[in-house]
UniProtKB/TrEMBL annotation:
The keyword Transmembrane applies. This is Sterol desaturase family protein. Residues 102-236 form the Fatty acid hydroxylase domain. Its main location: membrane. The chain crosses the membrane at residues 16-36, 57-82, 94-114, 170-188. It comes from the Bacteria.
Length: 256
């Protein structure tokens, strides 16, 4: 039991530091140091408040604790024997770690899309997901701002991933860091994709900050996490998404 407590404290501490660094650096850059210079990148012009930021950090720390407990349960308890986590890094070729990371992101996106739609059901929304949607104009601090019940639901995605995909602990770490960086970008409140991105195949597949920002401002549609695929297949992508993205591109690059 002592080992489990120590592992929980250790993973929570590392995850909390990661949250404050990976969310704090872009927050400092876009919201404190260069908000005027980067104004053209801002998706919603209305400012979020200090009260919003404090609420988001508080809920994010609760979520971080939940995620840490789930990780410890899968790695340091008898549940480990039901997973495909492997300790010897040479058990699979090093390049396989990239494959496992890619597969984990696909599983996560699919899990998130359907879980997210479920949380928008009227009987569940006020009970759980409303906490996240109090941030109608999200910032990097919003990334983990969940009701504790939603945090449990969010964190449980790790269960199907480690059951279905052989994962080294380092790959699990890469998955959590990669997912969080993309999450911060989705909640950034600014669109930073380069001008050429709009005219590539990647635009048709990948989400953008505008894509998820519309979900926060409109409350419905755009349920995907990393990709547009499920939203486009299920007809839940917001009808104004491309138009809104192009509007912001015009704003950023002074196009006619």
């Amino acid at each position: 039991m002592e080992k489990i407590i120590e592992a929980t404290i250790s993973i929570f501490s590392i995850s909390a530091i990661r949250y404050f660094v990976l969310a704090g650096v872009p927050f400092a850059l876009f919201y404190l140091l260069m908000p005027a210079k980067l104004g053209k990148f801002k998706i919603q012009q209305k400012p979020a408040t200090k009260k919003d930021f404090i609420r988001e950090v508080w809920h994010s720390m609760q979520s971080t604790l939940v995620f840490s407990i789930i990780a410890v349960a899968l790695v340091f308890t008898p549940l480990y024997q039901y997973t495909r986590i492997y300790a010897n890094i040479n058990e699979f070729p090093i390049w396989y770690m990239g494959v496992a990371l890619f597969l984990s992101l696909i599983i996560h996106d699919t899990y998130f899309y359907w879980m997210h739609r479920l949380l928008h059901h009227k009987k569940l929304f006020k009970l759980t997901h409303l906490v996240h949607h109090k941030s109608t104009n999200p910032s990097p601090w919003t990334s983990y701002s969940f009701h504790i019940l939603e945090a449990i639901t969010e964190g449980l995605v790790l269960v199907p991933i480690v059951i279905l995909v052989p994962m080294h602990p380092l790959t699990i770490l890469l998955f959590t860091v990669t997912g969080f960086i993309i999450n911060v970008y989705g909640h950034l409140g600014y669109e930073i994709m380069p001008k050429w991105f709009r005219f590539t195949w990647a635009f048709e597949i990948l989400n953008t900050s505008v894509h998820h920002n519309l979900h926060h401002s409109k409350f419905k549609g755009n349920y995907g996490l990393y990709f547009r695929i499920w939203d486009r297949m299920m007809g839940t992508e917001h009808s104004d998404y491309v138009k809104e993205y192009d509007r912001l591109q015009d704003q950023r690059f002074n196009q006619k």
